[in-house]
Design brief:
heterodimer; A: alpha/beta; FAD/NAD(P)-binding domain; eight-stranded mixed beta sheet; six-stranded antiparallel beta sheet; B: mainly alpha; 2 domains; two-stranded antiparallel sheet; 13 helices; 50% helix
Amino acid sequence: MATVLPKTDVVIIGVGWGGGIIASELTKQGKKVVGLERGKGRKLEDYFMMHDELRFGIRHGMMQNLSKETITFRNNEGMRALPMREYGSFLLGVGLGGSGTHWNGQNFRFLPYDFEMRSKTIEKYGEDKIPADMTIQDWGITYDEIEPYYDMWEKMAGISGEDNPLGGPRSNPYPTGPQKKTVAMELFTEATKNLGYHPYVQPSANLSENYTNPDGISRVACQYCGFCERFGCEYGAKADPLVTVLPVANETGNFEVRTNAEVRRILYDGTKATGVLYIDLETGEEFEQPADVVVSTGYVFTNVRLLLLSGIGRPYDPTTGKGVIGKNYAYQIRKGAATGYFDNKKFNNFAGSGGLGMIIDDFNGDNFDHSDLDFIHGGMIILGQTGLRPIANNSVPSGTPSWGAEFKDASIKYSNAYLSVKGEGASMAYRQHFIDLDPTYTDDFGDPLARITFDFEEQDRQLTKFMAEKCGAILKEMGADHVDISGDLGPYNVAEYQSTHNTGGVIMGADPETSAVNNYSQMWDVENLFVVGASSFPQNAGYNPTGTVGALSYRAAEGILKYLEKGGSLI
Amino acid sequence: MSDKNKNEPILEKRSSRRTFIKNSGLTVGGVVIGGALGSLLSKEEKTTTTETHVHSEATASNANVALMYFTPEQLAVTVAAAERIFPADANGPGAKDLLVAYYIDHQLAGTWGLRSNEYTKGPFFPGEPTQGYQGRLNRQEIFNIGLKGLQDHSVSTYNKKFTELTEEEQDAVLTDFADDKVPLKGTTSKIFFGILRAGTIEGAYADPLYGGNNGMEGWKMKNFPGHQMTFLDIIDKEFTVIEPLALNSQHKH
C-alpha cells in the first residue's frame, strides 16, 4: 500500500508556469510547498545542445512520451475515438518547468471583450448573434480586475513590448522595451499602416535587454538564435520557470520538488481534498502526500482527467449540457493565413526569437463591427520572425510538387524569401466539444486516457476565410510576388500541427451551476482544491494563452494564501 | 542564372554514379568486393574502381558510413529513391551525396524506427483521416514492406528492379506510391512514401551528427547557418550569408 508522508501546507501537481508561480508566491510567505512533477528535473546547463532541430523540433525531445500516455480523439460523438499515436496537432510538455521551458515567448493580455464575451456580444448584437449550440460564457472576472495580475506576471517574466493601441488600459508600461525590428517587420509595419491598421511590436518573453525582476532575478538579453519554440533557452533570456520563479521558491527553503513523481489521484473525502496519491516512476513505489491545499497545475488534459479519475466535481454531459468537468473544450483557429513569396528580396528568416514579430488587433475581439458578419470575435494578425529551421520549413508556392527536382529548387529558392502573415483565430465553445474519459484506451497504469470530442464549426470557417483574406491583402501590400491564401478550413485534423493552445474543461465563471472554478481558480465544489491553467478559460481568445495563465496563477496564489488564513469559499 | 551555370560542372561530378560506391561503403582499399555485395554494382560502376579509391579514402574516415539496420539491398533502394525525392541539381548535392540513406538507416535503428515514444497499444482500427496514423506497424516494418514494394512494383511494371530504372521510371514508380496506387501488405504506399519523404528531408537538413547533411551541404544550399550563438548583429539587417556551424563546434568548447 501507499506510504503516507508527513502533511504539508500545499501540494502542487505539475511544476510548470502555474506550479512555479504559485510555489514561489506561497513559499515567500512562509508556506511549506511540495511540488510533484512527473517528468525529469532540468537545469539551465542542460540546454547545452539545444540547437538541434531534429531532436527537439521534430522528435519532440522535451515532450511527454506518448507511449506512456496520450489522448484519444474523435470529431463527433458518432465517431469512434482513437488514440493520438504520434504527435500532431499539439504538443504535451513534461519535465521541470513544463511547457514554460519550450514555449515561444509570445505573450499577450486578452482584450477586455474576451472576459465578458457573452454579455458584450449580446449587448451589442442581440441574443441571436450567438448560435444555440455555442456555449460561450463570461469569465466571472473583468479585464480591470485581472489587470494587476497581468502586471505582476509581466514584471516577473520581464516582458518586452510596446503599447497595443487597441488593447485594454495598462497600469504600467512593459518592464522592458520591444525587441528589435527586422526588415520583414518593417515591411509589415509600413504595409499595415498604409491599409489603415494599428501595428505594434509583439510583446515577448525573450528579453530585449538585460533585466532584473522584482524577485531580484537577473537575466540576459535575447541573442535571436532562432531556437525557442520546442527548445529551452540556454541563455535564460526566454522567461522559463527554471530561471525565474523556481529559484525564488528554492531560495526560501520552503519548497520541495519531487521529480519523476506522477500523481494518479487527488484524494477526496466527499467534502475536501485530503492530498494526492502519486507514484515514484523510478522505483514504482506509491506515496500519499497529505496537504491542507491541493493545487492542480497540469496541462488542460491532465487537470480534467485527474478530476474525472478522482471522482471530483460534476462530469459534463453533452446531451443535457449539465455538469462542468470537461465542458467547453476549445482550441485556436489558425488556418486563416497567407504566405507571400518574394522573387527579388531575401530576409534573415533563419534568425529570430520565439516572441519576435509584429501584430495588428484591428480584427481581434470586437475591435471591428460584426453586424454583417457570420461570426463573432476574430483574432490577432501576426507576422512572426521565430527563426525558420530547415527541416520544418519548406514552403513552396501553390502548384509546386511536394518532392523531386522542382520541389527542391523552389524550397531552397524561397527559404529566405517567403514570409507568412497569420491569423490567430479565437475559438468558441460549443455544447458538442468536450473532454471525458475514453472507454477503451488506457495509460501505462491502466487508467483511461482523456478523450477529446472536437471539430471546427461554421463560425470557424467564416472566421478563417475572413482572416485569410486580410492576411493575403497585407502580403500583397508588402510587395510579395506570389501570395497563397489558405482559407479552407476543412475538418479538425489531430495529425496536423496547429497550436498547443488547448483550453477549457475546468472553466472559470461566476455561477457554480455553469462553471467549475471561481475567479481564484478555486473549485466551487471543493474549496481547498485549486485547478489552475488554460483549463479554466471558458473559451479561447485570439491570442497566445500563456500571459493569461500567468496572471491567473498570481491571482490563484493570492486566493490560496487567503484560504490558508481564513478558509471557506473566496467568493 | 549565371551562378547556376558556374556550379554545374562540379555538381555533375558530385552526382556521378561513382559516388554511390563511395557512399555505400562497398569498396575496401579501392577493390570492389564480389559475392553478394558485388552483385549490387553494375558493370559500369565496376570499371571506376580507380576513381572510387580516391573517394573511399574520405569515406573510410567517416565512421558513420556503415549500416545499423538496412540490408545492402534496402540501402541501395533507399539511396536511389531518396535521390529522386531530393535530387542533385544546380543548387547543390542531392540525397545520395548528403548521405541521407545512412541517416535514415540510423534513425530506423532507434526510437523513430521502433516508435518507442509513440502510443502503440491496441485495439487497432483504421480510423478517419482526421485521426492520424492508426497502424500496428513500426517504421522498420513499414520500410521493409515499402522498399520491397518499390522493387516489386518496378519489376511488375518495367521488368527491372527499382535501382535499375531510369530516373524518369523511378519518378513514375514513386508517384504511384505517393498517390497511394500501389497495394502493400499491412500498410499503404502513401504512408510509406510519407515516411520516406520526411526522412529524406530530415537527412538533408538535420545536424550532421546524425549522419546526413554531409559536410553541412544541405544547410549551405539553403543558407541556414545551423548552430550559432547569436544573430544580434544581423537580426535587423538585410539578408546575410553566414557560414554554418554544426553542434560539434559547441561540443569542442
